[in-house]
Write a structure and sequence with these properties.
The complex is a heterodimer. Chain A contains 16 helices and ten strands. Chain A is an alpha/beta fold. The chains are: A alpha/beta, B alpha/beta.
């Protein structure tokens, strides 16, 4: 089956909104090469469960593709069309299982030495898309906050090494009520400008009391889901012939209802939380990895204007079998290790924030929880300098957001 | 030190690779006191060695799991590799730009290193390489006995790396220390289970390892180690790679193979996303490399006639690549994940030299062939002239 043979009824298995979108754009979908289309369908098939920003991006991409003249479309997709795929891939049900197709396509491209060409084609396509679809104006300047090192009483190792050159390193911060002040600042932003899925609070431990105007995800609240998922994985890996690739494919098919994960009462958020655990590597076992990966996915997918991430201690590294069975006593924390993880996680938080539109106006703040060190990055703050000015976290936040 | 200044320019993949190379070279020049090698090339140190080939030993260590520049040779990473920098590199010929153009999975990449061909086998399947391995070339061409070529490797698929279908019976004997431990403990839940996990690529998946009586016999007869002593020693170790080095050192003492291949893997804990554990893995591997070199000096069969080659199978994704998640994986195929380094020290190598021209990971086997005197007829790499 090739894209040119697509018919409306091929999308019968899609959720309602996704089906409507696919059928309405059938003509342009038929003209896309097989090496490209399933990647687009992987996004489209989940359209009903996408964040507003993602829906808008899919719609904008379709509008762009529909507006291309035939010769333009041919030029855009020539690098993809030049890739050679196997007949086995052509026979695959890439319409209904695009994610699984991409796994197999990726393996095939690596095996046939075409991965670099695919990577180049994808990069070029994204660059073209960006230039033709200018980003919408943000409702407010973006703010990222990372709180790291919870529970660490003393630390003489390096901090903020990757971020220092980009901002001001404050060394006289009053830590009193620091988390509460930062959370209050985030809540005030949500109160001032309501944006659907626009203001987030992610916690690597248990969630603190917070405004319902914030979208919240936490490692602690997902504990029943993680347990259910780990039980599912235990059963899967004991099946004869099960390997990493099969396990990954099976995880991609898990739905919230399979694990009774409908705890958020919000199908979009439920699906998002499940994917954090089924698609993330290590998110099921280390809270620091969970917080870092969640921040990445929130930024990549929801593109919020506010994201507060509070890291929590992760458990000490233990044997994988024990982690998988989630036996009692597995929560012994590794405090210094968690601080190092979170310090890097904060850097990635900022990096991913900078990949979004409006990055030149964005602000970022990272604080060593309970201590007097913080670093702020903002258009108004000098870079690569230290400050001994005493202030609390509320004042620092004001300084960072201007 | 401004690590990128000498190499500043347009940002093509080639340029990035060169920058990685330059950063290592500049760092080595200033810190380790080594010299750019191309200006100092003279007669091959191996010319004298023809008559000594019979006694020559070669040990290859894959600095496994893949580590990036910023955690190793860049200024901010140097604290993680003190042994490489202070002890080994001053004695080494160092190649700053080793690229891997193949599939970036650990088993398939290591198989490619061992065959000199970019293998395309399924990384997650326990299948032999499609092309002859260095062990088969070595043993068949030089008529060496089975105990002269060994592999010590993690257990996830590496049990088939010793031999292709090229010359059945001419491969290396493969020791999988964690597998041995699993068999020796009969799956009991004890405090040494932390040594058994080795598949970080998908951290949730732990491969089922089936033991065999033959392996326990290896433990008893070849390593002269009782099961109880083996388990007792394992309890003192902190990682699978420490167990591998322990086994390698016993092999050196008791079997003295001429070709010994050790695949490290601890660093691949990075797939779990815990940066601190990734750094710990690098530091441990750094220490274990030096420990093994010390063992070479103390073993009469090895001291003075051994060449040690250390190289990663590949790197990891760059922070800057939006398609990846930084250090955690090696999935993007970007320059950082494809560009690594190699050091060669010991017998026949020139000390304290840096070579920054590109070589490929598949050049290893032809180079070993030239060193040891066998003909890797199907290998597709080229001989690295500075080492022969």
């Amino acid at each position: 089956m090739l894209p040119r043979n697509l018919e409306a009824e091929h999308f019968a298995g899609y959720p309602p909104e996704a089906k409507k979108l696919a059928v309405a754009n059938l003509t342009v979908l038929q003209q896309l090469p097989l090496s490209f289309l399933p990647a687009f369908l992987r996004e489209m098939i989940d359209y009903d469960y996408k964040f507003p920003r993602e829906r808008a991006a899919i719609e904008a991409e379709l509008a762009t593709l529909n507006a291309l003249a035939p010769e333009q479309r041919a030029a855009w997709f020539a690098p993809f069309s030049n890739l050679s795929l196997s007949s086995r891939l052509e026979r695959f049900d890439w319409i209904n299982q695009p994610a699984q197709f991409l796994e197999q396509e990726s393996a095939y491209l690596w095996t046939t030495g075409q991965q670099d060409a695919f990577r180049k084609a994808a990069t070029q396509y994204n660059d073209r898309l960006r230039t033709t679809s200018p980003a919408a104006a943000l409702p407010m300047r973006r703010l990222g906050i990372a709180i790291i090192g919870r529970g660490v009483t003393s630390w003489d190792g390096p901090l903020f090494r990757n971020l220092r050159m980009h901002g001001t390193w404050f060394k006289q911060i009053d830590p009193d009520k620091g988390f509460e002040l930062l959370l209050a600042g985030v809540e005030a932003r949500a109160q001032a400008r309501a944006v659907p899925y626009g203001h987030w609070y992610v916690d690597g431990g248990q969630t603190a009391d917070h405004s319902p105007q914030l979208t919240c995800v936490s490692y602690g609240a997902l504990e029943p889901v993680r347990s259910a998922l780990l039980n599912y994985i235990q059963k899967q890996i004991q099946r004869p012939g099960m390997g990493p690739e099969e396990l990954r494919s099976n995880l991609a098919r898990v739905l919230p209802a399979d694990l009774r994960v409908e705890q958020a009462g919000d199908p979009v958020l439920d699906r998002f939380q499940l994917k954090l655990l089924t698609e993330g590597s290590g998110t099921q076992i280390f809270s620091t990895t969970f917080a870092q990966w969640t921040a990445r996915e929130v930024l990549r997918r929801a593109q919020p204007v506010t994201l507060l991430v509070r890291f929590a201690p992760r458990q000490r590294q233990r044997p994988m079998n024990e982690l998988l069975s989630d036996l009692p006593g597995t929560t012994e924390p590794d405090l210094p290790g968690s601080l190092i993880d979170a310090d890097m996680g904060a850097y990635y938080h900022w990096m991913n924030q900078q990949r979004l539109p409006g990055s030149e106006e964005s602000s970022f703040l990272v604080w060593f929880e309970g201590h007097n060190q913080a670093l702020a990055i903002a258009p108004t703050l000098p870079r690569g300098v230290e400050s001994a000015s005493p202030m609390n976290l509320a004042s620092l936040l004001s300084l960072a957001v201007g | 030190m401004n690590r990128s200044a000498p190499c500043r320019g347009a940002v093509s993949a080639r340029d990035v690779a060169n920058r990685l190379s330059c950063s290592r070279r500049d760092f080595l020049r200033t810190t380790a006191g080594v010299t750019l090698g191309s200006a100092l090339m003279g007669a091959s140190p191996f010319l004298w060695a023809e008559s000594a080939r019979r006694k020559r030993k070669v040990i290859v260590i894959t600095f496994g799991g893949g580590a990036r520049d910023q955690e190793t040779f860049a200024p901010e990473g140097q604290e993680n590799i003190p042994h490489l920098l202070q002890e080994l590199i001053p004695q080494s010929s160092f190649f700053t730009q080793v690229t891997n153009h193949g599939i970036l999975g650990h088993y398939v990449a290591t198989a490619s290193l061992a065959t000199g061909v970019y293998e395309t086998l399924n990384n997650f399947s326990a299948v032999p390489p499609d092309h002859p391995t260095v062990f088969e070339y070595f043993r068949r061409d030089l008529r060496r006995p089975a105990n002269d070529a060994w592999v010590v490797a993690p257990s996830n698929g590496f049990n088939r790396i010793g031999e292709s279908s090229y010359g059945q019976g001419w491969g290396a004997t493969v020791v999988l220390p964690k597998r041995l431990l699993g068999v020796a403990t009969s799956g009991k839940t004890t405090d040494y289970e932390h040594l058994l996990h080795d598949n970080y690529e998908t951290p949730l998946y732990v491969p089922q390892v089936a033991g065999s009586e033959f392996e326990l016999q290896q433990l008893e007869t070849i390593l002269q180690l009782s099961v109880d002593d083996f388990i007792k020693h394992a309890r003192t170790l902190s990682s699978p790679d420490e167990l591998s080095v322990y086994i390698a050192k016993r092999l050196m003492r008791l079997q003295a193979p001429s070709l010994l291949w050790i695949t490290m893997h601890d660093i691949d804990i990075a797939h779990s996303g815990a940066y601190s554990l990734y750094i710990e893995g690098i530091r441990r591997t750094d220490r274990l490399c030096a420990e093994l070199w010390t063992a070479v000096q103390s073993e009469p069969e090895y001291a003075g006639n051994t060449t040690l080659l250390i190289l990663p199978d590949f790197g990891r994704d760059a922070d800057e690549d939006a398609g990846g998640n930084g250090f955690q994986h090696h999935r993007t195929g970007d320059v950082a994940s494809r560009t690594t380094w190699m050091m060669a020290l010991g017998a026949g190598t020139r000390q304290g030299l840096v070579f920054d021209h590109p070589v490929q990971s598949i050049d290893l086997v032809p180079t070993l062939g030239a060193m040891l005197g066998f003909s890797p007829s199907q290998a597709q790499g080229k001989v690295i002239g500075e080492l022969v």
